[in-house]
Write a structure and sequence with these properties.
mainly alpha
């Protein structure tokens, strides 16, 4: 009788996810705080106080990046950063539409990957949060 072993199970790597996504959110958060004028033209018209929203999102990104390294806050941080990535998606679309329709700013080389990477950012944040139900990273064979 042949011994057939089970296929390898996917392994989660929340530590690697934390070490790679936290610096991204930290740097972007600092840029939101130090240079909010860069983001102001991208804000949707329905946002009543765009600079305040930009500063608050910077604080949220920094707090989330730090919280990923606090065991008791890790899961909540992962969920909140994933939700944040979902919430800013309309701004990313607005940015792409503006730049591409006016021929100013960044072109498709920036916007195409940026729009399509958003689900990856959500997944990445959930893995970093080490949630038991988080999407898994497949183990290399």
């Amino acid at each position: 009788m042949r011994n057939v072993s089970a296929p390898p199970q996917p392994a989660r790597s929340p530590a690697l996810a934390r070490l790679t996504i936290a610096p991204v959110f930290l740097v972007v958060g600092v840029v939101h705080l130090t240079q909010p004028h860069l983001f102001a033209p991208l804000m949707l018209p329905v946002v009543p106080h765009p600079i305040a929203a930009i500063v608050l999102t910077g604080v949220a990104e920094i707090a989330g990046a730090i919280a990923l390294f606090v065991p008791r806050a890790r899961a909540l941080a992962g969920v909140m950063l994933a939700l944040y990535a979902v919430c800013v998606f309309p701004v990313n679309i607005n940015h792409a539409v503006h730049d591409l329709s006016t021929g100013t700013g960044l072109g498709w080389a920036y916007h195409y990957p940026r729009l399509f990477i958003q689900p990856l950012i959500c997944w990445w944040a959930l893995v970093a949060g080490a949630l038991p139900w988080a999407p898994r990273i497949a183990r290399p064979r």
